[in-house]
Amino acid sequence: MSRRVAFLWEGSTVEATLETKGASAVLTREGKRLETTFHREERRIELTTASGRATLEVVSGARDLWVSFEGRAYHLERPHRERPGAAAESGTDEIRAPMTGRVAKVAAAAGATAREGDLLLVIEAMKMEFRLTAPEDGIVAEVHCAEGDQVELGQLLVRLTPAAGRESETGTTAPDPKEPK
After folding, report:
1. How far apart are CA 179 and CA 181, in angstroms?
2. Which of 96, 131, 138, 151 would you call most buried, defined as having the most Cβ atoms within 10 angstroms of its Cβ?
3. Cβ contact 103:147 at 8 Å
């Protein structure tokens, strides 16, 4: 079976053709082919290519896909057909679990100011700690976890509202959450 796939990643649309037959797949993008065999057990996918093996954890939602690979989480959004720029219109940043693990520390509190790089929380997984930090200046709008909670790959943990005066990707200024509407 062959099908076109498209995702938004870091604001750009990535398009490719995916051909699958049994446990074999070929991904073609911009004239380059990646041939692989795969084995899937629930969210875990093991890929084997000519250059080696890789294990991924994947969580698929209605509009997005989270992929965890070598300790990093990648968030891919499915483009919206009716409104191509709709994915970038959100005035919030979502901090999601980069892998399945246990919340070891929550440093963020709803309503608190967070500066770019500030520690929001720590997740323990596979005897390692993963520090999740604020990607930009903003206000912690919501905290969806507590110390000791088990979290799953892609689970929403913290929602930030960009700092007042920061222009969003749509060119509008983000509102100050402390000012009345």
Report:
1. 6
2. 138
3. yes
d(C-alpha 24, C-alpha 53), whole Å: 14
Closest alpha carbon to 177 in 158, 164, 168: 164
Taking only the tens place, the pLDDT of each residue in 132-158 is: 888 888 999 999 999 999 998 888 899
Beta bridge partner(s), residue 106:
121
Q: Taking a C-beta distance cutoff of 8 angstroms, is the pair 53, 46 a contact?
A: yes
**pTM of the predicted model, to two decimals?**
0.48
Q: Which amino acid is at 81?
A: R
Name residue 56's beta-bridge partners: 45
Query: pLDDT tens, 11-24?
Result: 788 889 989 898 99
Class of domain 2-77: alpha beta
Instruction: Give 91-162's CATH code, choosing from 1.10.260.40, 2.40.50.100, 3.40.190.10, 3.40.50.150.
Output: 2.40.50.100
The CA R_g of the chain, rounded to the nearest whole Å, is 19
Report residue 167 as tokens.
């222009």
